[in-house]
């Protein structure tokens, strides 16, 4: 009976700890020149390791303050994308809630961008972003609550979802796209980030419970 009660209490405590959303991974773009090799991970949740925000090999770095920026976009080039994501420790999973970011294209940069992820081989856009007419920031909070139970390494990509420029013409070789922090209507910047919950697997909860029982018995 005591074992059952202790385990139930531990499970309830773990569930309570995971009940509210937290930052799963964030990226530091503020203060960056835009043409840096990558934007480093800022915040990581416990039992999660973030992956840097990087460019695909088909892109050329371009200067644009407080962001990661690139030119050389082509709808036909599979290597034209921004990549970011995280790895979840064994014994845990992640239930995503939202992606916060601010993105911008120049007039001859990509006109329609999409968010894709490794769960389906980057084949179907989770969300798309209309960048027209260009030169304006699109500050967005993407609902990702459908992505739950994520384990192992999960990669996301921002890539072109249509072969059109933000100004309605053809994408130019010098056209740019950048990603950075989210800006709300009150002038508050929020780091580009995923929010959600880190959830222990049932087996991990059981091990925690047994460990707690052993420690209690030793103290007695």
Overall SS class: alpha+beta
Order of helices and strands: HEEEEEEEEEEEEEEEEH
What CATH architecture do you see?
Answer: Sandwich
| Shape estimate | globular
Query: Sheet with the most strands?
Result: 8 strands, antiparallel
What's the multimeric state? single chain
Mean pLDDT: 90
- Helix percent reads 10-25%
DSSP strand count:
16
Radius of gyration: 21 Å
Unreliable stretches covering 5 or more consecutive residues: 1-18, 213-218
| CATH overall fold name | Jelly Rolls
Query: What is the number of independent domains?
Result: 1
Tell me the span between the first and last alpha carbons.
18 Å
Which CATH class applies here? Mainly Beta
Number of helices: 2
Strand content: 35-45%
Can you walk through the features of this model?
Helix 1 (2-17) crosses helix 2. The protein starts with a helix and ends with a helix. It has a single domain, classed as Jelly Rolls. Strands 1, 3, 5, 6, 8, 11, 13 and 16 form an 8-stranded antiparallel β-sheet that branches. The protein has 220 residues and is α+β, with helices and mostly antiparallel strands. It has helices at residues 2-17, 202-219, and strands at 22-27, 38-39, 41-44, 48-55, 60-61, 67-71, 81-88, 92-105, 112-117, 127-130, 137-143, 152-160, 176-180, 182-183, 189-190, 192-200. Mean pLDDT is 90; it is low at 1-18 and 213-218.
């Amino acid at each position: 009976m005591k074992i059952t009660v202790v385990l139930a209490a531990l499970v309830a405590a773990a569930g309570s700890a995971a009940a509210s959303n937290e930052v799963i991974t964030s990226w530091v773009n503020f203060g960056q020149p835009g043409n840096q090799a990558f934007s480093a991970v800022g915040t990581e949740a416990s039992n999660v390791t973030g992956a840097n925000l990087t460019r695909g090999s088909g892109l050329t770095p371009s200067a644009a303050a407080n962001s990661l920026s690139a030119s050389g976009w082509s709808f036909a080039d599979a290597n034209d994308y921004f990549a970011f994501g995280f790895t979840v420790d064994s014994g845990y999973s992640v239930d995503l809630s939202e992606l916060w970011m601010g993105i911008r294209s120049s007039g001859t940069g990509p006109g329609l961008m999409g968010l894709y992820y490794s769960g389906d081989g980057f084949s179907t856009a989770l969300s798309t972003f209309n960048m027209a007419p260009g030169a304006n920031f699109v500050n967005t909070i993407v609902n990702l609550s459908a992505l739950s139970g994520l384990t192992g390494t999960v990669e996301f990509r921002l890539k072109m979802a249509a072969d059109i420029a933000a100004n309605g013409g053809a994408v130019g070789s010098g056209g740019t796209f950048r990603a950075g922090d989210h800006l709300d209507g009150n002038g508050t910047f929020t780091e580009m980030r995923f929010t959600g919950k880190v959830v222990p697997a049932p087996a991990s909860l059981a091990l925690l419970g047994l460990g707690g029982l052993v420690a209690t018995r030793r103290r007695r």
